[in-house]
């Protein structure tokens, strides 16, 4: 079975109560490699590795079918807001 | 996992502030992700120890279990698992890596 970016997005949104999830399919359409950008209040007070483990755990079922998952950003809402304020030119 | 192997990994990460379990070594990284981590640490100008997991299957499978992390490279700072390539890039960009390395090297 192949995994779609939408499935990954849905899973992360519900599992991590994410306020923002961006999933980029980097597999050239075969649905096995993704880049994810996640903003979640659950990351508050956690180290980067703990945040990435949360993301991996949320996708446990999908990981078997995913060849490569690259977690590009795992931020708290406060960090995301600060980043957005610092770089208003980039969307 | 094998208790002897666990003990040798424990000692290795206790006796080096920064340890990278990677594919290849710092002169000849055998994979883009491992290379990225080496380049970041070179820029940070910190001493670090590398372990080539391609030369040792026991370490390769052992480290996945030890870190509970499925992929390489794996970076340990001050005895704690810090993360892989994605985390190194993110932490480098945010300044968190510099902070952690300073804490580690001054402790």
Automatic annotation (TrEMBL), chain A:
Task: Write the signal peptide boundaries.
Answer: none
State the Gene Ontology BP annotations.
intracellular iron ion homeostasis; protein maturation
Q: Which GO terms describe its cellular component?
A: cytosol; nucleus
Molecular function GO terms recorded: 2 iron, 2 sulfur cluster binding
* Protein family: Belongs to the BolA/IbaG family.
Instruction: Spell out the PANTHER family in the cross-references.
Output: BOLA-LIKE PROTEIN 2, BOLA-LIKE PROTEIN-RELATED
Provide the protein name: Bola-like protein
Species assigned in the record: Chlamydomonas incerta
UniProtKB/TrEMBL annotation, chain B:
UniProt binding sites for glutathione: 23, 60, 72, 85-86
InterPro entries referenced in this protein's UniProt entry, alphabetically: Glutaredoxin, GRX_PICOT-like, Monothiol_GRX, Monothiol_GRX-rel, Thioredoxin-like_sf
Please report a single Pfam family linked to this protein: Glutaredoxin
Instruction: Tell me one GO molecular function of this protein.
Output: metal ion binding
Task: Report the leader peptide range.
Answer: none
Q: NCBIfam families recorded for this chain? A: Grx4 family monothiol glutaredoxin
Q: Where is the Glutaredoxin domain positioned along the sequence?
A: 18-81
Can you tell me which family this protein belongs to? Belongs to the glutaredoxin family. Monothiol subfamily.
The scientific name of the source species is: Chlamydomonas incerta
Annotated keywords: 2Fe-2S, Iron, Iron-sulfur, Metal-binding, Redox-active center
For this protein, the record's PANTHER family field holds: GLUTAREDOXIN FAMILY MEMBER, MONOTHIOL GLUTAREDOXIN-S14, CHLOROPLASTIC
Domain of life, per the record? Eukaryota
Give yes or no: UniProt keyword Iron-sulfur: yes
Binding, [2Fe-2S] cluster: 31
Question: Which SUPFAM superfamilies does this UniProt record tie to the protein?
Answer: Thioredoxin-like (SSF52833)
| Name of the protein described by the UniProt record | Glutaredoxin
